[in-house]
Specification:
This protein is of the alpha/beta class and 414 residues long. The protein has one domain: TIM Barrel (Alpha-Beta Barrel). Helix content is 38%, strand content 14%. It is built from 13 helices and 15 strands. The strands form four sheets. The chain has an eight-stranded parallel beta barrel with strand order 3-4-6-9-10-11-14-15, surrounded by six helices. Helix 3 runs parallel beside helix 6 and helix 12 crosses helix 13. The longest helix has 28 residues.
Length: 414
Amino acid sequence: MSLLDQTLTLPSGLTLPNRIVKAAMTENLADAANQPTGRHERLYRRWAEGGSGLLVTGNLMVDRRFLERSRNIVADRHLDVVRLGRVRQAAGTTPIIAQLNHPGRQTNRFIARTPVAPSASGAVPMMGLFGKPRALASGEIDEIVESFGTAAALCEKAGLDGVQIHAAHGYLLAQFLSPHVNRRTDAWGGDVAGRARALLASVRAARQATGDGFTVAVKLNSSDFRHGGFTEDDAEQVVRLLVEEGVDLIEVSGGTYESPALFGIGVDETPVPHLASVKEAYFAAFAQRARRAAPEVPIMLTGGIRTRAAMEALLAGGAVDLIGLGRPLAIDPDLPHALLKGAAGIELPSYTLPTVAGMAGESEWYEVQIGRLGDGRDVAPGLHPARAASGFVGGELVRGLREQRARRRLAERA
């Protein structure tokens, strides 16, 4: 039996049939009321049939006023739990956990003219898509923490196996962790422990709102990859704090919209331990530090992993317990089955657009493929990324502005 084919039981008691995880990717498939749809059901049925040992959903928002995309599912008290339950049922026996998120300052201006952040700061510099954020009041932070607990309870009610608290890629909880964004001088800022308070409180809220056996995981940046930001030394301290909170799984990633290491931009690919001839796995070096800080907590590594040889080497090295695959499964949902049968891996398309436009186009290109899978169609590998990027801006402009007032009215009635 290969290392990829081995089972793994998380501290929560959830048993995964193999070591390949479908990592979270934005789906943007909700309806105008930000509810789950039949497209989600078809999508997760397709991914479950592909052989992953665990499915992590695209981020469910905890506050409908601030979305990462206009058609995110929102897991607040207005959530249709029955519909979310159908998504879970579509995955069959494959374990599935929901990623929970608040985008903070990474809410585009078509959805919220004034996003929120730990501190007031400049807008995210990305093609003018983001407004300048205002600082959250302490009471608002308490409400956001509570919303993570509410969302976790709703996911449990829908029958999901757990949740993953998103504290990576420059979203709100990662913003709290970053001294570049978090300039607060109260209990929510300052040293690493203060900057980690919002994350730890959110983990605690999710744990307290759910029962025994419900998985609570965290996605954590290894670094912001920018001067004055969240560092690997900071991240190691946060891992130790997460261990004290009793988390069931830590996924290692990195980067933000401003420093998109999640796409491999600005990252020196790390030679995989025991396989020096292969350079993959953007954040493999930090995974080894995370293992030393959390020897008993399973570590999942996501980002740039493309070959079966590298996956096996990472698992053999002992620092990594699970292999996260995102974009590869957007274009080949059957890849896990192929890997488990001995396939060599996958090669992704390359893009030649300028960095910022290229990142937007690449991200939206994969989102379009996810949408096609949700429609029950095959992927369209010939789609040009520039067309995908224009579709993102146009779609968010129309949907975001049209539904902005409705979302605010509904949030006010919560």
